[in-house]
Amino acid sequence: MWNQQPVTSIDQVFKKPSEVAAHKTGLKILIWGAEDTRKTGFCLSCPPPVYEVDTELGAPPLFQHFVYCPKCQKHTTHILSPEGAIGPCRVCNDTNGVMKDIHWCDATFLNPNTDEPDPFVALQRLESTITLLKDVKKGTVCIDSGTDVWDWIQAWLEGTGKHKEGTLLRFEWAKAKQRWRQLLLRLMAKPLHFVMTAQTQDIYQGNEPTGEHRPRIQGASQHVFDIIIYAQKWLAITGNPPVKRYSYQAEITKCRFSKDFRPTIPDVTFDELTKQLKEKIGVEVW
Length: 286
Description:
Layout: E1 28-33, H1 39-44, E2 50-54, E3 67-69, E4 74-76, E5 78-80, E6 86-89, E7 98-99, E8 102-106, H2 119-132, E9 140-144, H3 146-160, E10 163-164, E11 167-168, H4 173-188, E12 193-198, E13 200-205, E14 208-215, E15 227-238, E16 243-255, E17 264-266, H5 270-281
Parallel strand pairs: 1-12, 1-15, 2-8, 2-9, 9-12
Antiparallel strand pairs: 3-4, 3-7, 5-6, 10-11, 13-14, 15-16, 16-17
């Protein structure tokens, strides 16, 4: 059994800034928005190795965009075979592309008897997966998406919590919040970049929607992130005859380093985000 020795010195508890440099090496980011706003693409753009915990199976179709082409000297789109073989670069036809160091985890689980999703097992497997990451010291961990994980926790509570007349007792929600918070803090405490994606949720006043939105995750979660990004897809109709054109914009709605850092970044990637952090407020991300 793990045995924690008693604390006998103040220096064991309180540290100087120079002694906690490891905790400056990772950004903790929440990126949320409607479907098709490039949230998963942002995850895969993060520093490698990227550990992508995928609850929506949305990452594999994007792998083709994260192959480094030595001739173009950047990541470009390559043709990938069903077996995963890397074909030619679609820009220059070079055939020496190298896949980015991405480790993909299918976080879904289908009950073999019913062939239906099983949130109880999926949640247990996710927590075990996080344990397996305990010795990872660099790179990025992505939970894609946190909305599904919060849904799994709510399903677990509904199935195990105490009810009265068919309704879950109000105090039972503390169990769900605690399980969510433990999962989140285990990832926050690592000296890595951590990204969570989330879907959108309407905000209501009474029974009427206000037209505003929030991330659909546990309500008290936003305060723990360094940066919150609201990913959006904008439609413009131009030309004659009219042609629909979409642009992808990322609005920074929270930055722990500076309340004045609120840019809107088109086609946001991790590199572009960190570039603007350095140029605009002098924050360098390692």
